[in-house]
Structure formats: structure tokens, C-alpha cells
Amino acid sequence: MWRHLAPIVAAFLACAACNFSQDMSGSAAAVTQFHSRFNSENYPAIYAGAAADLRASTPEKDFTDLLAAVRRKLGIERKTASTGFFVNATTGGTVIRLNYNTTFAEGQAAEEFVFRSQNGKYLLLSYNINSPLLITR
Which of 22, 23, 51, 98 is the most buried (most CB within 10 A)? Predict the structure, then answer.
């Protein structure tokens, strides 16, 4: 009996691996786009491209003011290094969390991006950044 299920299980695993790879590359590209917009101070574009959940819970002015403060204190993003990820695929959709150590013009920070994969797009659900420089400057 198990012998008949093997091709089905193999096909399922191959499809899951393909989606995982696509989600990882797509969400990493979304981080690159976020940083490009951050560096050019295009905060409204970051907000406009975010998931409805983020936009419903955070007013645009609060979000853009936060990003402007980060930019003022840390400067432009120079380099990122991935430190971890988590992918949660459910029947309700896929959520991808990416963690980075990021070098900015004025120092280092730990960033966490959470995206929802939706119709081939990666929508920002949340953004967190930690750096002592955000407090001391």
C-alpha cells in the first residue's frame, strides 16, 4: 500500500521545495526593494506596498516618521547579512520572517522583516529594527 503513495508524497515534497525556494528568493528581493526605497527616503512607497494588516494597525505618518528617524540616526543601508529565517506555510497563506544584521552608514542594527506571500507578491506585515544607536543618538 505504501508503495502506491510514494509517487504522491514525492510530488508533494518537490512542489513544497519549489514554493519554499520561490518564497525565500521573493522575500529576499522584497528586502532589497525595502532598503532601496529606504535609502532614497521613499517611505510612502514602502507603506503603500505593505500588507493591509500593517496599514490597518499603523497610520502612514507613524510608519514614515519611524523610518525617517531610523534614517536620521543610522544613515543609509550599506550591507546586509542574513542571520535566519522562518517560513510558515498554511492553508491561509505563507508568512516569511527574515532576520538580518545590517550595516548602515553610522552603525549596525538587527532587522526583522515579516512578509506575506500573496499572488506572487511579498507584502510587508511587520518591520522591527534594534540598535543601541537608535536610543543614544
Answer: 98
